[in-house]
Each structure stands twice: as C-alpha cells, then as structure tokens.
Amino acid sequence: MERLDDLDSAVLVRLGSAVARVHLLELAMAKLLKAHGHDMSVPIDDRWDEISGRLRQTAGDASQRAWCAPTGP
What we know:
This protein is an all-alpha fold. The chain contains two helices and no strands. The chain has helices at 6-35, 44-67. The model has no long low-confidence stretch (mean pLDDT 75).
C-alpha cells in the first residue's frame, strides 16, 4: 500500500472537512423546512420557489438588521 505524502494528506483533510460542513448544512436545511411545516413527501423541486423565497427573506431581514444604524439616544 502506498503512503500518502503531506500534500495528499492535507487535501484529504480539507475534503473531509468540506463534506462534513455540507452535511451539517443539509441537516440545518431539513430542520428549517420541518420547522416551517413543509410537507416532506412532496419533491423539493416542486417546493423550491417557496423555499428559496423564505431563505431570501431570512437573509434579507438579517442583512437589513446588520446594516441599519442604531436608533435611540
């Protein structure tokens, strides 16, 4: 069996990390859909317009809060 050099090992570590993060994103999206009461038996392609609209709305709301100047004294 051939041993991996340091570069190959570094690439594999980064690939594994990326795969793990994508999996966490998938889990978070599934929980988000469940929390909003989506029918999980309907294919995602049939629900994508509604889902992407909700995701844009959430991102837009967060963006507005981050960039608005604080009000008050």
